[in-house]
């Protein structure tokens, strides 16, 4: 294995799932955030190592960059 995650990192990852679910729940009419949250939640549940966590972080950076490039402000 390429490095176990520390307990506090595991807790942060689980808290991320909660925050995503909360934000998606605030959206009306099953908008795009709900679909994104569902997909990201699946990926978050797969994180068990430092390498997987780093890959997920890069994915999130890519999503944010894409969003900003296309005019997103939030």
TrEMBL record:
Keywords: Antiviral defense, RNA-binding. It holds the Pfam family Csm2_III-A. GO terms for biological process: defense response to virus. It comes from the Bacteria. GO terms for molecular function: RNA binding. InterPro entries: CRISPR-assoc_prot_Csm2_III-A. Belongs to the CRISPR-associated Csm2 family. This subunit may be involved in monitoring complementarity of crRNA and target RNA. This is CRISPR system Cms protein Csm2. It comes from Candidatus Termititenax persephonae.
């Amino acid at each position: 294995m390429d490095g176990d995650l520390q307990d506090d990192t595991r807790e942060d990852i689980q808290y991320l799932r909660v925050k995503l679910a909360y934000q998606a729940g605030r959206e009306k009419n099953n908008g795009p955030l709900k679909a994104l949250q569902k997909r990201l939640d699946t990926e978050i549940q797969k994180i068990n190592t430092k390498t997987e966590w780093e890959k997920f972080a890069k994915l999130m950076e890519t999503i944010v960059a894409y969003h900003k490039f296309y005019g997103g402000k939030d």
